[in-house]
Write a structure and sequence with these properties.
Number of strands: 20
Helix content: 25-40%
Strand order of the largest sheet: 5-4-3-2-1-14-15
Strand content: 15-25%
Structural class: alpha/beta
Largest sheet: 7 strands, mixed
Length: 537
């Protein structure tokens, strides 16, 4: 007998219980119209994920329970439809990460998560208690088990479900994106679920939540671990999957985006949801004529539309003519509002004010930083006056080594490319231009420069970005030792210099805006180094 399972790949908003409830109800209505027997929504679909310290408030659980019961009553309109909803729950003694089966107007059964992740961006042991009871229910003679996300990254919970009679494992997920994550998901599901001879339905969240991106890409595997169904990447989706007994019926699989396309879509989704979910009317971007601001501008327009993006060029006496020309050309291609506010007179006024203090002292980074802070002040003034949020344009390479100015180019509300290494910035620009030519080619071929003094280039102060990014990746993302990085072929002097800069610039990163995470380790919630530390490797 055929069983139909609807996978609801939804974009929940943290704390919007009424809105999330309405989205689940609408999805259930559409699924029921298509003959679904089961509707599977992602982890914490009712409240959004991760709710963080909202999970420490009793009022949050009370409102969640009220909303869950109300949703169950709404779903009574679809007799026999099993709707699986993710939510936090409490028994008055402990708190749980749960998913409940809503059936015929009531909460029929509840599964509580066993494996609580407490690494990288996860902190679930702070909030939840683990439980070890399996949940298996039958629909048309097929036995479906429930696990939640991390449960399937270890063998225990799938084994418990199998022992309880499960033939198909339903897995609500709140699995955030990082590069190459999907292949890791496939491999892990095969190791822990397919090996037991169970089919698998993996329903993942989609959307941006602060620095995290949930990429969707939900899927179905058969008992042999073969991929049979694949949902959209970085988009909401609803897919009806037929099961012939416990075996899923295959559907055509979509083409896989190249890595650059995946990362670009993740950044677009992150900007779209951060701006939209927080209610900002638009964004401001400081243009420089360089590659970082160009990429940020392209992402913002793709995420929000040209009408919600404003570009500001703030030239000084050190700004090259080509920076003006290329910036004007790009904003013309994209159709955004563009303004130029020269800062030379303001910079001269600062130097005049500080002349007595600086008498007899050579010009250095102080004067360079003053220019950056003038620009930051102007952008924040426009933000305050008009309500639009400033998108900063600094990349991960700069954040790592402190090649950025506090209260200057770091001033803003959201750091779009904070987790994008400089070498990846260029690859993303090339990918975007392959879709349609929006970034002038000269921006991609000229040497990168902050243009804060005459004839300045980034490589005056830093190793070549190919070397810097490689050292940063091995040291910061992969936790290799200095000796291992040198053994990999990087110059010892550069390794010592870059790792020292990473250490001493922690104080800057702590004051930077939240930014989108696309690597498995970004300078955010999964990077927790002390500012005050005397340890040198």
């Amino acid at each position: 007998m055929t069983v139909k399972v609807a996978i609801v790949q939804m974009n929940s908003t943290v704390g919007d219980l009424a809105g999330n409830r309405a989205r689940i109800l609408d999805a259930a209505r559409r699924a029921a119209a298509d003959g679904a027997d089961i509707v599977l929504t992602p982890e914490m679909s009712l409240v959004g994920y991760p709710p963080e310290d909202l999970l420490l408030r009793n009022a949050f659980y009370a409102k969640t329970e009220e909303t869950l019961v109300g949703l169950a009553a709404d779903l009574a309109a679809f007799p026999g439809l099993h709707v699986i909803v993710g939510h936090p729950g409490t028994d008055g003694k402990a708190r749980y990460n749960a998913s409940s089966v809503l059936l015929d107007g009531a909460v029929s059964a509840t599964y509580r998560k066993h494996e609580l992740p407490n690494t990288t961006v996860f902190d679930e042991k702070r909030y939840f208690t683990s439980r070890d009871e399996p949940l298996v229910f039958a629909v048309k003679g097929v036995r479906f088990g429930l696990n939640i996300c991390e449960d399937t990254w270890f063998p225990h919970a799938p084994q418990r479900a199998k022992a309880a009679g499960a033939e198909v494992l339903l897995v609500p997920n709140g699995s955030p994106y990082h590069m190459n994550k999907q292949d890791l998901r496939y491999e892990t599901m095969r190791q822990n679920v397919s090996v037991l001879g169970m089919s698998l339905v993996y329903a993942n969240l989609v959307g941006g939540q602060d620095e995290l991106i949930f990429d969707g890409h939900s899927f179905v595997m058969d008992q042999e671990g073969e991929l049979r169904v694949q949902l959209k990447h970085f988009e909401e989706d609803l897919c009806i999957v037929e099961f012939d007994g416990a075996r899923p019926v295959a559907q055509p699989l979509p083409a896989v985006l190249p890595l650059e396309g995946q990362v670009y879509k993740a950044l677009v989704l992150g900007v779209h949801d951060y701006i939209g979910k927080n209610g900002f009317p638009g964004v401001l971007i400081g243009m420089s004529g360089g590659v970082d601001s160009a990429l940020t501008l392209a992402i913002a327009v793709d995420a929000l539309g040209a009408d919600k993006v404003r570009a500001i060029m703030m030239p000084s006496q050190y700004t090259a003519d080509i920076s003006w020309i290329d910036s004007r050309e790009m904003v013309g291609r994209l159709g955004v509002r563009y303004d130029e506010i020269p800062i030379q007179a303001t910079f001269d006024a600062f130097r005049a004010t500080l002349a007595a203090e600086f008498a007899g002292l050579k010009e250095d980074a102080t004067e360079e930083n003053i220019q950056a802070r003038i620009r930051g002040t102007l952008l924040m003034a426009l933000s305050n006056k008009h309500g639009s949020i400033v998108l900063t344009t600094g990349n991960k390479s700069e954040m790592a080594v402190g090649y950025c100015t506090l209260y200057g180019d770091m001033a803003g509300g959201f750091a779009v490319i904070k987790d994008i290494a400089k070498t990846l910035v260029y690859r993303l620009c090339d990918w975007r231009n392959a879709q349609s030519d929006v970034i002038p080619q000269r921006i991609l071929t000229r040497g990168p420069s902050a243009e804060l003094r005459e004839n300045q280039l980034d490589q005056d102060s830093l190793p070549p970005y190919e070397i810097l990014d490689g050292i940063m990746r091995m040291y910061m993302e992969e936790n290799h030792s200095i000796a291992e990085i040198v053994a990999a072929g990087y110059p010892a002097a550069d390794v010592a210099r870059v790792t020292r800069l990473i250490k001493i610039n922690e104080y800057k990163r702590r004051q930077s805006p939240v930014g989108i995470r696309v690597t498995h380790r970004g300078f955010g919630r999964d990077w927790r180094y002390p500012i005050t530390s005397k340890f040198y490797e």
